[in-house]
Amino acid sequence: MSWNVILMNVSSRIDDPEQLKENPPAVLGDKETVLAAIHRRFPEFDFSDPAWGRMHNDDFSIEFNIGDADPLDTLMLNIRGSDRVVAMLRVFCQHFGWRALDTTTGKFIDFDDDPARGLRLWREYKDKIVRH
C-alpha cells in the first residue's frame, strides 16, 4: 500500500486533471534516456530492474512503476514514509519540468500550498485499514 503520484509532462496552464482529456500530456521521452537522466540527477535510484526503479532511505522510499512502455508517457511513483519525500518530489518536478498528479486528492500537487496533503490523507486511510 502506497501513496501514488503520477509524473507527467503537462502544461502549467492546465489546472484541472479533467483538462487532460482535451490536452493529453506530452511524452516524457524514450525509456532509456529518461531513466539515464533520472539516474544522473538522482544516483540513489536503482534502475537495475528497468520496469521498477527504487530508492530507499531512513525517511521514505519511492518506487517507479515504469513498465514496458517506450516512449514513456507518464511515471507512476509508489511512495511510503515521511513528509520529507515531498521536498524531493518538488526538486524532481522542477528539474525535469514535469507535474505531479496526486491520486489521493485527484489534483496536481501545488508545491506552494500544502503539497503533503495527499500523503497525509493516504496515511490516515492506511492507518484505518491497518487498525481494522
What does this structure look like?
With 132 residues, the protein is of the alpha+beta class. It has one domain: TATA-Binding Protein (2-Layer Sandwich). Helix content is 29%, strand content 27%. The chain has 3 helices and 7 strands, in the order E-H-E-E-E-E-H-E-E-H. The chain has helices at 31-41, 85-96, 117-131; strands spanning 3-8, 46-49, 52-56, 60-65, 74-81, 99-102, 107-108. The chain has a 7-stranded antiparallel beta sheet with strand order 2-3-4-5-1-6-7. Strand 2 (46-49) and strand 3 (52-56) form a beta hairpin. The longest helix is centred in the last third of the chain and has 15 residues, at 117-131. The model has no long low-confidence stretch (mean pLDDT 91).
